[in-house]
Amino acid sequence: MLNKKENYEVAVVGATGAVGRRMLSTLEERNFPVAGLTALASARSAGQTLRYQGRSIEVRQLNENSFKGIDIALFSAGGAVSRQYAPIAVESGCVVIDNSSAWRMEKGVPLIVPEVNPDALGDKPEIIANPNCSTVQMVVALKPIHDRYRIRRVVVSTYQSVSGSGQKAIKELEQQSRAVLDGKPIEKKVYPHQIAFNCLPHIDVFLDNGYSKEEMKMVNETRKILGDESIEISPTTVRVPVFYSHSEAVYVETEQPMTAEEIKKLLSEFPGVRVVDAPGKNEYPLAVEAAGKGEVVVGRIRKDLARENAINFWVVSDNLLKGAALNAVQIAELLIKRVSS
Amino acid sequence: MLNKKENYEVAVVGATGAVGRRMLSTLEERNFPVAGLTALASARSAGQTLRYQGRSIEVRQLNENSFKGIDIALFSAGGAVSRQYAPIAVESGCVVIDNSSAWRMEKGVPLIVPEVNPDALGDKPEIIANPNCSTVQMVVALKPIHDRYRIRRVVVSTYQSVSGSGQKAIKELEQQSRAVLDGKPIEKKVYPHQIAFNCLPHIDVFLDNGYSKEEMKMVNETRKILGDESIEISPTTVRVPVFYSHSEAVYVETEQPMTAEEIKKLLSEFPGVRVVDAPGKNEYPLAVEAAGKGEVVVGRIRKDLARENAINFWVVSDNLLKGAALNAVQIAELLIKRVSS
C-alpha cells in the first residue's frame, strides 16, 4: 500500500533488460518523483552500471531484502522472478507493478492500461499487472469503439518486433541479417527458425487448443481490461524481422453500425492515440516511426466492404514503451495521483 | 486458339523480370513441350542473354510482329504491356496467359488456378488471366473448404515479400538492410518508406474506399475463381522485409460447422497443398522454407475459440512460383492437355 510522499523510493527489477532500461529512461523523461532509484537484477548482471539522471547507478543483485524502504517496484524480469519476489516486495510494504504474465489473470490483481480502465486499480492495490505488449496497443484502440458501439468480435493478426524477446533477440536479428546478406550460415539461439527475412507464426509456447500463449494473452487480457467476457477474439501472433514496435491488423465487429469517419474521430480524441490516416499521401502508421515514442498510432481505418457493423484498422506502437515500460510508469503515476488526491 | 502439336512455340514477355526468369526455369524443370522459346522484353532489356536448357537465348525487343508463329505467350511485363500486346498476340493466333492484372476481371476472360477452377477455362480461350500472387495461395487453401462447408466470410492479413515488386525491390531490401545495420542513411526508390526492418500496410495504390488495389484484387479475384459472389472478404495487405514467399493469416467462417482435424485432412488431400502443422515441434509453414518450391503450405490450422463454424490458418507459398510463374505454366499444361484429349 502506497502512502502519500513528495518523492518515492523506486526499484526496477530486471533493470538491465530491454524493458528495464526503458523503465529507467521513462521515469527520467516523465520526471517521475523519484527519491531514490534502486536497480536490481540477477547475479549475472549485478555490478553493471546504468545511467539515471546523469548519475551512474550500480545494479544490485535481487534478494529477499531488496525491497526494504522501497515504495514502488517495477518488475520486468520474467514470470518466475515475479512469482517469487512480488509477494516478498508486497510484504515489505511495496506496491508492485509487474510487467510479466505471472499475475495478470489472477483474480483480484488489477490489469491496468491507464487510459482504458483506471478505475480497475481498486482501493489498495498490492500487485498491479501490466498487460502484454500486443494487448496494450490493441486495447487502447478498441476501448473508445467498445464504449460507443459495443464490440462483439475481433480478428487480429500481429507483426511483432524482436525486441519483445529481449536484447538477445535484437542481436540475433542483426547477426542473422548480416549473415544472410553475406551468404553465410546463420546461428539460431533465441528463435527455433531463422528470423532474418522471415516471419514466424510462433510467439511463446503452443497450447493444446492450437493457439500460442501469446495469442491467448490477447484474448484473455483484452476481455479482463475491457471488463467484458463476451467479446470474441480470434488472434494470430507473428514475429517479423523488425527491431522495435509491433504492428497489428485488426478487424472489429460491433453491435451497432458505424462509419470510418466516426471511428477516426473517436480514436483521434482518445488519450494516447494518434491517428495517421492519409493512405493516398502514403501516410499510415509505421513501426520505424512509432519506435521510441509513447503513442499508439492508428490508421488504415476503413469500413468492412460488406457489413455496416465491421471495420478494419492498422495499429502500431513501440512494444517496449506503451507496450511495457511506459504503461508501467503510467500505472505508477496513476497510483501516486490516487494517494495525492 | 491452340492446335494440337507435339511441341509448342512459346514466348515469354518480360523474360528478364523476376517472374519472367521463373517462367523460363519452370518451363525447363517441368519439361514443358517447347519447340522453340522466344524471350521478349522492352528495348531497355533487349540484347541481354538468358539461359534455357543449357543454351543462351538472346532477349528480343517486343513489337507488333513478335508473335508470328508463336503458339503460347506467357506475359509478365505489367498491365500496360498486356493491355496493348495481348490482343495483338491473339490476332497472330497465339493463346495468351497473362500474369498482369489487366485482364483478370474482364468478362469472358478466364481467371484460372488449375487445381481450383480448371473448367472455367472454357472451350476456346484466347487470353487467360493468371491471378494475383496473394490470391492464388489463399484460394488454393479455400477451395476444398468452400466445397465442403461453404465459405461465407474471410478475414485475411498478408505478410508479402518484396520480390512481388520485382528485382529492384529485392535490391532495395538488400541495400537498405545493410545501410541500417551499418548505421548509414537509406535510399528509397521502390517503396515510399523504409522497407528494411519495417512493415508497410501498403501494396499497390489506394482507392477511394480506403482499400488498396491489392486488397481489392484479393476480394474480386477470389470470388471470380470460386464462382461465388456472396463470399465476404476483409483483407489487409502488408509488405514485410522478406525476400521470397508470401505468408497469410486467414480467418474463415463457413455455413456448416467444421473441426480442425477435418480441415487438415481436406487440405492434405488437395492437390498442390502440403500441410505442415505440428506447432509443438516448431513445425509450421515458413517463407524461407517455401521459397523456390511450388507448393502451397498450410499450417496453424485451429478452430476459432468461440464459433463452431470458424477456423484460422497460416498459408505460405513462393509468390514468384505458385503465385505467378508456376501457375502460368500449369495453365499452359492444362491448355495442351485439353487440345490433346
If you had to describe this structure to a student in words, what would you say it looks like?
- The structure is a homodimer of 341-residue chains.
- By secondary structure, chain A is α/β, with parallel strands linked by helices.
- Chain A is 30% helix and 23% strand.
- Chain A has helices at 18-29, 79-91, 133-149, 167-181, 213-226, 260-268, 287-290, 321-340, and strands spanning 8-13, 34-41, 49-52, 55-58, 60-61, 72-75, 95-98, 127-129, 151-159, 232-236, 246-254, 273-275, 296-303, 310-317.
- Chain A starts with 7 loop residues before the first strand and ends with a helix.
- Chain A is globular and about 60 Å long.
- The first copy, chain A, folds into two domains: 8-130 and 324-340, Rossmann fold (3-Layer(aba) Sandwich); 135-319, Dihydrodipicolinate Reductase, domain 2 (2-Layer Sandwich), CATH 3.30.360.
- In chain A, helix 1 packs across helix 8 and helix 3 (133-149) packs parallel to helix 5 (213-226).
- The first copy, chain A, has eight helices and 14 strands.
- At the A-B interface, strand 9, helix 4, strand 10, strand 11 and strand 13 of A face strand 9, helix 4, strand 10, strand 11 and strand 13 of B.
